[in-house]
Amino acid sequence: MILSVSLMALCFTVCSQTRYFEFRQPFNNTTTSFIVATSDNSLINEVLYDITLPVAQRRFISGNVINGHGGFNHDGTVWYTWHYIPNEWQLTVSNVEYCDGISSLIGSNPALIAGETIYFCPWESYPFQEVDNPGLSVDELNTNIQTTLYPNPAANKVHFLWSGTENLAIKVYNITGQKIFTTLISKQNNEIDITNLSVGLYFVHMSSGNEKGIEKLIVQH
Asked: What structural domains does the chain harbor?
């Protein structure tokens, strides 16, 4: 019975793991890219299959987008101010480009979504590759602070160790990009209480002086 429960817990952790994929799209003689997230195993398998196909045979993306980068959406150098809502997008064999009046210009004109959830279906978009650490792959947010947060996964409290001498400013975001809370900790009081956080994946943004970094935190009560 104990073994059965352990296997079920392992499956919940692994089978429901959020995974990230880079999509690319030809636009004005250049190629833009953005990152999406999902924990839907069927969709993950669909994307992984499409990546094995020639680009011309890969399907397009369509789904609901909302303000905020969600902790993962960027083009390699710049964080976007919008993202596809995890598990609220899908692959389609055709797109009409304009959905809710929004075209591919959303990348350069994020104000178009005006804080509302809209349906976005960029023409010629295609899955390019899986991304392991979307929060750490943007040039402007490359980690230049040595940090350790433990335990991870965590249930009640998280402790921090960092290389800087100044206090550590912490901002915690959920998977949709919503800021959950901010706090400031010191070397003497180096923990935060997460008992009020729901089970799931979070992004912890940290800064100390001119140093900054971002880490993923899994909450499991």
From this structure: 2-135 (no CATH), 143-219 (2.60.40.3080)
